[in-house]
């Protein structure tokens, strides 16, 4: 009779243990799948930028900066103020993101150090692995994202500051190789700016990972879809861009001929 009365309790305990194991396994399945989806999208984006740059916003913007530098360098004395102000705006934007990234990194470090000293019970909002090791990995990944965003934006500031000196050098206006060097530095600054933004974007699904692997995976899918619409161009945009660049090229040729 005692064994019969204990049998339902044993089955209930076994069922709860199996459910807990399945809940913990979600982190090992959904989190890598979400990161893999996010990584595959960016691999496709890199391939498209290298082989079909006009299909991406990054490629079109790089070409626009190329023509902008040539337009400015036709008369660096006259256009120097405009060039410096434009680059200064980019420096201020990169500085703001770098400051935000390092501030959030400091706050996360303080939060992790304070929570590690206190024995907090796992939150009921979290559906997934609630072990202390997984929690430490979550905060470390978020901290790493913000540190990378800080480093990328610092490199962007470095290139933009260097271009602000080069773009106002009158002696370089007649040297095409020097102008191409300025274009490369400007595009590198914009590249690090884009990488810093991607690090901020990645911090969103990692932050939702705190509440479980399901919100993290859903955020990765939604973010990849949203970035696809932000990173790609339409045929109307490409035609409009090509038409405007042809007009700029003709005007630059007329100025250089004069």
TrEMBL record:
Q: Where are the transmembrane segments?
A: 28-50, 91-112, 132-152, 206-230
User: Which InterPro entries did the record assign?
Assistant: DUF599
Say yes or no: keyword Glycoprotein present. no
A Pfam family it matches: DUF599
Keywords in alphabetical order: Membrane, Transmembrane, Transmembrane helix
> Which lineage do the record's taxonomy fields give for this organism?
Eukaryota, Viridiplantae, Streptophyta, Embryophyta, Tracheophyta
Q: What is this protein called?
A: Uncharacterized protein
